[in-house]
Automatic annotation (TrEMBL):
The keyword Ribonucleoprotein does not apply. Gene3D superfamilies: Spore Coat Polysaccharide Biosynthesis Protein SpsA, Chain A (3.90.550.10). Keywords: Nucleotidyltransferase, Transferase. This is 2-C-methyl-D-erythritol 4-phosphate cytidylyltransferase. GO terms for biological process: isoprenoid biosynthetic process. PANTHER family: 2-C-METHYL-D-ERYTHRITOL 4-PHOSPHATE CYTIDYLYLTRANSFERASE, CHLOROPLASTIC, RIBITOL-5-PHOSPHATE CYTIDYLYLTRANSFERASE. GO terms for molecular function: 2-C-methyl-D-erythritol 4-phosphate cytidylyltransferase activity.
Amino acid sequence: MGNADKPKQFLTVGEKPVIIHTIEKFIINSHFIEIVVLVPKSWLAYTKDIIRKYIRQHEKIVVVEGGTTRNETIMNAIQYIEDCGRLTEDTIIVTHDSVRPFVTYRIIEENIKFARNFGACDTVIPASDTIVESRDGSFISNIPEREKMFQGQTPQSFKAKHLRKIYQSLTDAERAILTDACKIYVLKNEPVYLVEGEVSNIKITYPHDLRVAEAILGGNQTC
C-alpha cells in the first residue's frame, strides 16, 4: 500500500476504517456467538479503541493477538474459543480477510451452511482470465483449462476442532507451503466445498483498490 503508516485494514474508506466496514457485515448476522478480531500485538489497543468508537454492539467483539502466519492466527482463534469453553465437534469458525469489506450476507450464510454440511468450504469466483503456469518464472509451463480454474476469496469456513486436528498433523515441510487454510485440507485429501463469491468481494491490497472501494461505497449510498 505504498508508504502507508499503518496496516491497510486501518486505512479510511467512506469515513471509517476498512476493518470496521468488514466487522459490520458480521455483527448483523445472528448466527455468530462472537466476532474474534485477530491483530498484531502492537495494534491490539488501537483496534479495541476504533471498535468502541464505531460499533455500538462492541460487546459481541473480542480482540485477540494473532500469530506470525495466517494459519497460526486461525489457531489462536480456535484456542481462544476453547479457552472460553465453547469448542465442540460442531463449532464452526468463519475466517475472513479484514480487508474484504464488501462480503455479502448471502456469502456468509452459505459459508455457515456448507461448513456445517461438509466440514469445510471456500469462497471462490470463476477465473475470468486465462491462467498461465510457469515453473521457472520465465517461460510458460502449462495453460490449465479456464473452466476448471477459480479465484479464491474469503470467507473460508470450517468445523474448528477438525481444522486444528489436521493442521497439527502436518509436517514442517507441509506447513511451509501453506498459502491459506483450505490448503490444509487439500494436502490431506479432505473435501472443501465451493461457495459462490462475488466480483465485488474485493481485497483491498493496492492504492487502486482504495479508489475502487470508495466508488463501491458511493454507489451503495446512491442506491
